[in-house]
Specification:
Elements lengths: L3 H11 L2 E4 L4 H14 L4 E7 L5 H14 L2 E6 L6 H4 L5 H19 L3 E3 L12 H8 L5 H4 L4 H11 L24 H16 L6 E5 L2 E5 L5 H6 L1 H9 L5 E4 L15
Parallel strand pairs: 1-2, 1-4, 2-3, 6-7
Antiparallel strand pairs: 5-6
Length: 263
């Protein structure tokens, strides 16, 4: 599922776009296709910078923009100033995406553009209040309109030679916190350092979930034996940022699994 020609037609119908570019496989694919289809003058790519963005993700956005010739800039968002965001209830993503649209929307308005996000068909079935916030501000989801699933995005990216085709799924650092745990800058930085330390050990797809003094590690099932074999290095990397206990989730990596608490 997913048709590249249809996606190009969707983008051409919009004429000028501002792509919310987080550097993940989905938004990177959209940024590349939008630039290739409309040209850099008509496809601006913006990366929202806040404490919830992992430092390595921002660095990769910069590198990708250079590699692909994107018309790229960073924009600062202020969701951390919003108490409704910091309390971290089920609508956290709504407030985060609203903060993005507060900044990206005016950019689109001044250039007579439309804000587009890398939402795909698979995202529609999960708890994603951010999509509602974006829709309320007239953002568009061209990957949905063109019938793209996550698998189709990765496959088409591979066919196009985009190195992001197999990039591990990423999400904002606040998604590592169970609902009800207040979001704070020190806590987000702690999680960022913990995950960066594990990435330096060679682990790709991973999540560090915060439970106070305890860090719960989620990695793909195929990586669990390697974690155990390198237990000392893993423990040192996570305890080194301030955790007292390090646990391994035997169910493995599950994107968005904290949403189960809302059902």
């Amino acid at each position: 599922m997913g048709d590249l020609a249809s996606l190009r037609r969707e983008l051409q119908s919009l004429e000028r776009v501002v792509v919310a570019f987080s550097g993940g496989a989905d938004s990177a694919f959209l940024a590349w296709v939008a630039t290739d289809t409309l040209g850099a003058d008509n496809a601006s790519c913006v990366t929202a910078v806040s404490p919830s963005l992992a430092e390595r993700e921002l660095d990769d956005c910069s590198v990708l923009a250079e590699e692909w010739g994107l018309n790229w800039r960073t924009i600062e968002t202020d969701e951390m100033d919003n108490a409704a965001y910091r309390i971290n209830d089920g609508d956290r993503c709504y407030h985060c995406k609203s903060a993005l649209m507060d900044v990206a929307g005016p950019i689109a308005l001044t250039t007579d553009s439309v804000v587009v996000l890398g939402v795909n068909l698979d995202d529609l079935g999960d708890h994603r209040p951010g999509q509602r916030a974006a829709s309320e501000r007239n953002a568009r989801f061209p990957l949905v309109d063109a019938g793209f699933t996550k698998t189709a995005i990765r496959e088409t990216s591979r066919e196009l030679g985009l190195r992001t085709w197999d990039k591990p799924a990423a999400a904002c650092l606040a998604s590592r916190l169970p609902y009800g745990t207040q979001v704070s800058v020190p806590l987000l930085r702690k999680l960022d350092r913990a995950e960066a330390g594990l990435a330096e050990l060679g682990f790709g797809q991973l999540r560090v979930r915060d439970y106070g003094d305890t860090a719960r590690l989620e990695l793909p099932l195929d990586d669990l034996q390697q974690v155990l074999d390198r237990r000392g290095e893993v423990v040192d990397a996570v305890k080194g940022v301030g955790y007292t206990y390090v646990t391994l989730d035997l169910e493995g990596f599950r994107s968005g699994n904290l949403n189960q608490a809302l059902t």
